[in-house]
Inverse folding.
């Protein structure tokens, strides 16, 4: 790859991306544009602007993407009930394609020929950022400093920062106890004190949820309203996607809902241990499944469950902008045409359970399932022929076994 002339850097304002910013200028003598996204991580972003200005950046983009993130990325994913390896709600995975999308768009707006990110060469994020970028602009250059430079230790990073007058907070001089990624959907913690999967994660790792044992002793009931598969209200109040997810985070967090300690299989080949908190997403998934129980036909529901692991894997591996993900999304969205109604959840001591659901689009017929008189809605004699037809092949197989001994 030829040296870039102008780079758009995904910039958090932290020490690592500030070092990357300066390294890009030193290494390539190029202009650097910074992009900082507010995805609901809960941090003040203006310090990132001030730090970029101090480091000589003239083009600084700081954008509130919370609504776009929830509406166009999180909600479509939750229509699929997507979980990776049976447990992980993909909070980090689903944020990367949006960041990449804006990096590529800003590159086009500013005339930059490259984008850069701070993901390491061991993780999944490098794959997600770069696959997304190339899917949106096949000619874009991608600079990944962690795969290129010789700053391979904390000491070398600190030395580089000191040589180039990059401010270092006191708490950044030592090794951080663990690494954190956060957005509106979740927090993700990994590394350092969490690297031994046999050791229980210390309580201070958790940031969005109270310990389930310390949660209120009384349950709380929450009603989540849906229209065509997307949540639109909480307890009867209509909310925007981002505001709704924030409200569910608050409700789930105070009851200790949404904690996950997972050893997962990374796309790059190794296993890693992560501690995740997804309080709002856990409520959203439970409520969505609750309303699907009465509005989705069995065939469609079972097919969705067959497709979901593949869909989740595509997101985890960085293929959000792939044709196969878009094909699956079209099928999933078709299934959601009648997923409209309300699910009632009970939150208590780290759990969220559906305890009621109702919809004008419901397929549930009390007349057909009642143990009382059904007024002819269902003729139980029909079951005999149904069973005999389904048993025919099993009978033939059993007869062959008997005949052949």
């Amino acid at each position: 790859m030829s040296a870039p002339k102008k780079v758009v850097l995904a910039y958090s304002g932290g020490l690592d991306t500030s070092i990357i910013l300066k390294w890009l200028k030193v290494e390539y003598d190029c202009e650097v544009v910074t992009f900082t996204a507010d995805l609901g991580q809960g941090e003040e972003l203006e310090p990132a602007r001030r730090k970029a200005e101090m480091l000589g950046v003239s083009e600084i983009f700081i954008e509130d993407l919370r609504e776009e993130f929830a509406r166009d990325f999180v909600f479509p994913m939750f229509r699929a009930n997507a979980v990776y390896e049976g447990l992980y709600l993909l909070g980090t995975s689903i944020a990367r394609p949006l960041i990449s999308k804006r990096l590529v768009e800003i590159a086009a707006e500013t005339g930059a020929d490259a984008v850069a990110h701070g993901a390491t060469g061991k993780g999944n994020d490098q794959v997600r950022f770069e696959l997304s970028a190339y899917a949106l602009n096949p000619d874009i250059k991608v600079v990944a400093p962690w795969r290129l430079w010789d700053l391979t230790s904390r000491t070398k990073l600190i030395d580089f920062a000191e040589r180039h007058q990059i401010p270092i907070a006191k708490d950044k001089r030592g090794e951080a106890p663990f690494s954190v990624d956060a957005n509106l959907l979740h927090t993700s913690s990994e590394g350092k004190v969490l690297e031994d999967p046999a050791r229980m994660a210390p309580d201070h790792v958790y940031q969005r949820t109270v310990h389930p044992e310390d949660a209120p002793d009384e349950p709380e009931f929450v009603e989540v309203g849906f229209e065509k598969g997307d949540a639109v209200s909480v307890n009867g109040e209509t909310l925007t996607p981002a505001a709704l997810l924030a409200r569910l985070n608050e409700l789930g967090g105070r009851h200790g809902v949404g904690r996950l300690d997972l050893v997962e299989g990374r796309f790059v080949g190794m296993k890693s241990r992560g501690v995740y908190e997804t309080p709002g997403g856990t409520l959203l998934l439970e409520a969505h499944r609750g309303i699907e129980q009465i509005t989705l036909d069995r065939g469609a529901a079972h097919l969705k469950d067959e497709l979901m692991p593949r869909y989740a894997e595509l997101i985890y591996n960085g293929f959000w902008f792939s044709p196969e993900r878009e094909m699956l999304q079209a099928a999933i969205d078709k299934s959601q045409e009648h997923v409209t109604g309300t699910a009632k959840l009970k939150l208590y001591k780290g759990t969220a359970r559906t305890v009621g659901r109702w919809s004008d689009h419901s397929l549930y017929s009390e007349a057909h399932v009642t143990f009382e008189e059904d007024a002819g809605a269902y003729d139980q004699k029909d079951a005999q022929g149904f069973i005999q037809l389904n048993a025919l092949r099993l009978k033939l197989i059993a007869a062959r076994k008997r005949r052949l001994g």
Observations:
- The chain has three domains: 6-65+92-175, 180-296+338-358, 375-400.
